[in-house]
Amino acid sequence: LMRVAWKTKSIPSAWCRAVTIFIPKEKDSHNISQFREIALLNVEGKIFFSVMATRMTSYLLANKYIDTSCQKAGVPGFPGCVEHSVMIWDQIQTA
């Protein structure tokens, strides 16, 4: 099914939908803020889009479409969050 979707460039609509379930955070919850949302997704769709994201990231990195000196979010192997946190901390210390 995934190979057919890849070759035909047509994704089943079920792969693009989620069912949202509200789970109460506390017993006897009545207010919407007392619930946690959980999105249930199609497993085949999650696998397909995960493979696509991995392939696209590899292609973009290999062909230098992503400048990892400034773009780190979502790029595996680049600890941008820690680096940016340290930069912010340094700025706070020197302020």
User: What sequence of helices (H) and strands (E) makes up the elements?
Assistant: HEEHH
Structural class: alpha+beta
- Rg, Å, rounded: 20 Å
Question: What percentage of residues falls in helices of 4 or more residues?
Answer: 40-55%
Assembly annotation: single chain
Termini separation? 57 Å
What does this protein look like?
It is a single chain. The protein is of the alpha+beta class. The chain folds into 2 domains: 2-63, no CATH class; 70-95. It is built from 3 helices and 2 strands. Strands 1-2 form a two-stranded antiparallel ribbon. The radius of gyration is 20 Å and the shape is flat. The termini are far apart.
Could you give the topology of this structure?
Layout: H1 2-8, E1 18-24, E2 35-41, H2 43-62, H3 80-94
Antiparallel strand pairs: 1-2
Key descriptive features of the protein:
single chain; 2 domains; flat
Give a short overview.
The protein is an alpha+beta fold and 95 residues long. It has helices spanning 2-8, 43-62, 80-94; strands at residues 18-24, 35-41.
